[in-house]
Design a protein that fits this description.
The chain is mostly helical. It contains 21 helices and two strands. The chain has a two-stranded antiparallel sheet with strand order 1-2. α4 packs antiparallel against α9 and α12 packs antiparallel against α13. The radius of gyration is 26 Å and the shape is flat.
């Protein structure tokens, strides 16, 4: 029997085994529950939309608040279950050896993850929400984009609840910073005599947003020691939020056609990886109506100057190098590294010593490798499955970073190679 036939038979067996484990026995209570299903996310969302469009703003506010709370509960349950099931392994579940059948094992791991995730969601303390069918892709995308706050900001305005109106518009803009119409709404609300500046706050902001703002304020006030404390804490908080965002990108999906298993798995893998590449921008704060770009690199920019001001030159150099590693296209990052090159040379350091000092911090290096790995996996999927995206979507050339220009000012490419070389030599890490 050929390996192809064994693979097909194996797929059918895995599906039968896993589906049998998922379904399990039923009871009269299950049948009674099935007869009176709770309102789905999609139905709840549609009802809130229709109520809002009918001009029933007070009633729609209650509905939209319920949608937001339920989605928060779903996110919490999804995060916990994704973390619990991340290491799901079909070999362990079925006590079978899949050596020689890597594709079958990969598909089986997907089934094992789906079973684990479904069981976890049904048994979660928030099961009233988590046990419901997941929202449709369209509804889920609107929830992730915080669209309910778009409805809420206007409903609050129409009912003269101005503080809540300002909170809703700020929360929406955090996820949609380039929505011009909503930006105009915020400007209009700020002119109302009933509105105070502190009304404008993001209701869903992670904790590191506040510490970052506090750190930037301390930096601008010249309190460099406090700036270091706050921005270092913000970096730690950012990494935690990034972990959470990555987990939320890991969603079970439904196979629609058996003969396209490989194709659908590849498309889903790329969707998940692209979601991860967007996490840094998604969770970064808005400061003075500006969405912070390259958040990690910017943090290290602040830190390099603050450390230099308090006399910790070694920390300043590593932070400057970290900022450049994470965003080599930024002129300021390049100029900072070049400044420290000249500064150390004047202090009598040899060229080899300077190169050894130009080593990014371990947390910056870990984040760089993490993002690079995701981008490499996307590129590998693109190269391997170029013939399977015809009706599932195509790769956009805009997503692929352009190579550095040969005539770049101050030879940025050589500078970057020097830094990466020092990392390889000093830490023995392949980046």
């Amino acid at each position: 029997m050929s390996r192809v036939n064994l693979f097909v038979i194996g797929i059918f067996c895995l599906v039968a085994i896993i589906e049998g484990q998922i379904e399990g026995p039923t009871s009269d209570a299950d049948e009674l529950h099935a007869e009176q299903p709770p309102m789905s996310f999609d139905d709840q969302y549609e009802e809130a939309t229709n109520t809002y469009q009918a001009g029933e703003y007070e009633k729609s506010i209650k509905m939209w608040k319920s949608v937001v709370v339920n989605y928060m509960m779903l996110q919490h349950a999804t995060s916990q279950c994704a973390r619990k099931c991340k290491s799901a392994n079909i070999s362990i579940e079925l006590k079978m050896n899949f050596t020689g059948f890597p594709y079958l094992e990969t598909f089986g791991n997907g089934l094992a993850y789906g079973e684990c995730f479904k069981t976890c969601m049904e048994g979660h303390p928030y099961r009233k929400v988590s046990a419901k069918p997941l929202p449709s892709l369209e509804t889920l995308e609107e929830l992730e984009r915080r669209v309910p706050y778009n409805y809420l900001q206007f409903a609050y305005y129409k009912t003269e609840q101005y503080k809540k109106c300002c909170e809703a518009v700020t929360t929406y803009l955090q996820r949609n910073p380039y929505d011009e119409a909503m930006g105009n709404n915020m400007k209009f609300y700020s002119t109302l005599p009933q509105v105070k500046d502190h009304f404008f706050r993001d209701l869903e902001a992670p904790k590191f947003h506040k510490t970052y703002r506090t750190g930037v304020e301390a930096y601008e006030d010249g309190d460099h020691k406090q700036a270091i404390v706050e921005i270092e804490e913000a970096l730690v908080g950012f990494m935690d939020a990034f972990d959470e965002c990555e987990l939320m990108c890991e969603k079970p999906y439904e196979q629609t056609y058996f003969h396209r298993i490989t194709k659908e798995a590849a498309v889903e893998e790329v969707r998940k990886l692209r979601c991860v590449t967007e996490c840094e921008f998604t969770i970064s704060p808005i400061i003075q109506d500006w969405k912070v770009q390259n958040f990690t690199s910017r943090c290290f920019q602040f830190l390099q100057f603050a450390y230099f001001q308090v006399g910790e030159t070694s920390s300043a150099v590593s932070c400057a190098t970290s900022s450049f590693l994470l965003n080599p296209d930024a002129d300021l990052s390049r100029q900072n590294v070049e400044f420290y090159q000249g500064f150390l040379k004047k202090k009598g350091f040899m060229a080899s010593e300077i190169q050894a000092l130009l080593t990014p911090r371990k947390d910056a290096l870990a984040f760089y490798n993490r993002v690079k790995d995701v981008k490499s996996r996307i590129a590998a999927a693109e190269a391997t499955f170029t013939d399977v995206y015809d009706d599932e979507g195509s790769f956009d050339e805009a997503d692929v970073p352009e190579a550095a220009a040969d005539d770049d000012v101050l030879n940025k490419e050589d500078l970057f190679k020097s830094i990466t070389s020092s990392i390889e030599n000093g830490l023995n890490i392949n980046i």
